[in-house]
Structures are given as C-alpha cells and as structure tokens.
Amino acid sequence: MEWLRRFRGAVLILVFLGLFFYIFFLNFRPAQRMDVLQRFVVEVFMVPVQLLGNATGAVEDTIQKYVWLRQVQEENEVLRQRVQGLEQRLADYREAYLENLRLRRLLDFKSTIHAETIAAQVVLHDPTGWFQTLMVDKGFLDQVEPDMPVVNDEGVVGRILDVSDRYSRILLITDPGSAVDAVVQRNRVRGVLSGKDSSSCFLRYVRGNQDVQVGDLIVTSGKDGIFPKGLRLGVVQGVVKDPVDLFQRIEVKPLVRLTALEEVLIIRRDSRMPEEIMAR
C-alpha cells in the first residue's frame, strides 16, 4: 500500500504539471474559441494557479519589506552612531573651551600677582571624605616644597602638605587642621581662619567687642609666614555674639569653589608679592 500512495502522489504531480504546461502553451496557439476540454481545464485549474501566484506575490512582498526594514535599521544605526560621534565631539569642544577659559583666568591672575608660581593640575580629591585634601601633578622634581601656598584666580585654595617626586598633597582651607592668619579687609580686624566643613570656615579668636559684619571680605594678613598678604579667603556669612563667650562665632564662606578645582597655582616660597595685589 505504501507504493500505491507514492504512485498516486507522483501521478497527481505529473497531472498538475501537465495541465500547467497545457495552459502555458495555449499562449502560442492561434486566436480562436476554446473547445470544451480547454475551457474545462482553464476554468478548473486557473483558480489554484491564481492562488499560488497570489501566495508567491505575498511572499515576495514580505521578503521585500523585510529587506527594506533591515536596510532602514542599518541606516538608522549608522545615523545613531554618527549623532553620538558628533555629540561627543561637541562635548570635547565644550570641555576644551571651558578649560581654555579657566587657564586664561589663571594666567591673567598670575600676571597680576608678580610672583613666581608653578601651575599644577588637580588629579585626585580625597576619596574618603575624612580630610579636606587633594592631589596635584607637581612635586619635588618641579621644585614644590611643603607649606607653599596654593591659589587660583578666585582666591586661596590651601597649602602644600606632603610632597613626593611627582605629586603633592594640598591641605584645603576648609580642613579643620588648616589655620590661616587673616584680617577683615574693611577694618583690619584680625583672626585665624580654620576649616569647618567642605563648604565653610570659621574666623576664630575675634573678640566680642570688635566690628565684624555679614558680607565683610576676609583676606590673608601675611603674618603667618606662609601666605602672602592680601589674598582673598572668603566672605562672612554669619556672626553670633555670645555675652558669655569671649570670642565671636564668625562663619566664612570660601571664595574658591574647592569641590570644582581642576587647575591651581603654587606660589614659590621665596616669592614676595607686593601689597597692591590685595583683594580686588
């Protein structure tokens, strides 16, 4: 019975192919009315032929749409990568522009202080948050020494704490261990500026009967043997006078944005700055 099913299938295929070719070769006969057999064959077998043609056309359309979608996806990916490249290039240009502005301000400030300085790049802020320090890419090989003052165009940053051959650690003025001899620019009231937290300082040892007001500019006095006279430190943010306490509680906001530092100037120890560079 297996051979009979195979034979039946082969016969059906041969019949179908024969009818297909019969219909096909009708195109080559002279124009005339079809006979009964021809009409029967055409009417009966054109339906499956049309269905097969429609199915084939649908498959072709599907394939064409798939190919088109793939091309569109590939083009979109190319465009997306191109946009990303342009955005990165724009970001690089903007970063270079901002760096150029910072360096220009630093260079202008350097020309006003008339002191020998060493330009340094900030490479690391203290990752622990326990100390207000940062690392720069200059050290003994660049003639950097401990206790050299560090500034930028906004004011005082801090002083050199430790030095290796190629790197140095800076103690920021906001560190509690920092101490800078300072004066109120308006009336020369003297105190010691020390760190409170990452964004503020205290002006200590100012007696309660001395005049200090919110908005007063605090500058270096030049009497601690480290910082030259007249460098800007910060602005008074709050003053609390306690009748029981001998000294006022004076809070100062540093002028330098210490958390955003990228470049600094290290002032050589043997440099002497004229008094006319006092806070502008």
What fold name stands as the CATH topology of the largest domain?
Thrombin, subunit H
Q: Roughly what is the average pLDDT, rounded to an integer?
A: 79
Number of helices: 2
Q: Provide the spatial order of strands within the biggest beta sheet.
A: 1-2-5-4-3-12
CATH class of the largest domain: Mainly Beta
Name of the CATH architecture of the largest domain: Beta Barrel
List segments where confidence is low: pLDDT < 50 over at least 5 consecutive residues.
Answer: 271-280
Gap between N and C termini? 111 Å
Please describe what this structure looks like.
A 6-stranded antiparallel beta barrel has the order 1-2-5-4-3-12. The chain is of the alpha+beta class and 280 residues long. Helices cover 36% and strands 26% of the residues. The protein has helices at 2-25, 36-113; strands at residues 117-125, 133-136, 149-152, 155-163, 168-172, 180-184, 190-197, 200-204, 217-220, 232-240, 249-254, 263-267. Residues 271-280 have low confidence and may be disordered. Strand 4 (155-163) and strand 5 form a beta hairpin. It contains 2 helices and 12 strands, in the order H-H-E-E-E-E-E-E-E-E-E-E-E-E. It folds into 2 domains: 1-26 and 35-113; 118-272, Thrombin, subunit H, CATH 2.40.10.
In short:
The chain is α+β, with helices and mostly antiparallel strands and 280 residues long. The protein has helices at residues 2-25, 36-113; strands spanning 117-125, 133-136, 149-152, 155-163, 168-172, 180-184, 190-197, 200-204, 217-220, 232-240, 249-254, 263-267.
